[in-house]
Amino acid sequence: MSRFPVSPTSRQAIWDFVRNLRRTLGLEYEFYFNIVNFVEKVMPVMFPDFIFEVCTTEEMGNMHGETIPSEHKIRIREDVYNNACMDIGRDRLTMAHEAEHYFMHDEKSIIFPKSAGSGKIPTFCDPEWQANVFAGELLAPSYLIDGLPAYIVQKRCSVSFSCADRQLSAIESERSKQNGIVIDLDF
After folding, report:
1. 65 occurs within a structural domain
2. Closest Cα to residue 52, out of 21, 78, 28?
3. Is 104 domain-assigned?
4. Looking at per-residue confidence, does 69 or 16 come out higher?
5. Alpha helices (H) in the chain, listed in sequence order
6. How far apart are CA 110 and CA 117, in angstroms?
7. How do strand 73-77 and strand 65-68 relate by DSSP bridges?
8. Residue 187 pLDDT more than 80?
9. Can you give the residue range of the structural domain that contains 65?
10. Number of domains in the chain
11. CB neighbour class for 150 (10 Å; exposed up to 12, middle 13-18, buried from 19)
């Protein structure tokens, strides 16, 4: 995805979107989310023009995945896809990350800055931050994992330990904001 800013979206708004999506799919209270099945079988029903491709390492190079909104396409590198099929958390997260780009980022959502400024994209306008928040919430929903230890989240949700830990930290950050304490987690 481009490093242009996109329309601002808060973590809570992304979490609400994901919960609504899971509710619509009848998966609101399921710890495990089958991201491979979702991308391969559900997204084509939701979006009739959607194309999913598994590409070789030669085709993708260092990119693990990419979303091309103008072509209605998500491409995932073959080794990443195979690992996601084997429930490797990092690669499942990559597929969920690309799904967010497809859902929420298109040519219309990109904001072209008026001036170059500092070149740093504000967190809530960063498409990569938004995709990471979506992916973490889709695979390890905050409302289900709140209060659990990271190793239990890792096991129940089939995510990496670092993803589980980041989700739990984000829950604490959101809780602090609600209590008037601001903690900025820039990931």
Report:
1. yes
2. 78
3. yes
4. 16
5. 11-24, 35-37, 43-46, 57-60, 78-85, 89-104, 127-139, 142-145, 150-157, 161-178
6. 17
7. antiparallel
8. no
9. 11-178
10. 1
11. buried
One-letter amino acid of 109? S
Task: Grade residue 88 by pLDDT with cuts at 50, 70 and 90.
Answer: very high
- pLDDT band at 156, cuts 50/70/90? very high
End-to-end CA distance of the chain: 16
Q: Report the C-alpha gap between 23 and 15 in whole angstroms.
A: 12
- Tokens representing 102 are 């497809």
- Would 15 be classed as within a structural domain? yes
Residue 124 or 134, more confident:
134
Six token digits for residue 21: 């999506």
Residue 118 carries which side chain, given as an amino acid letter?
A: S
pLDDT value at position 3? Answer: 63
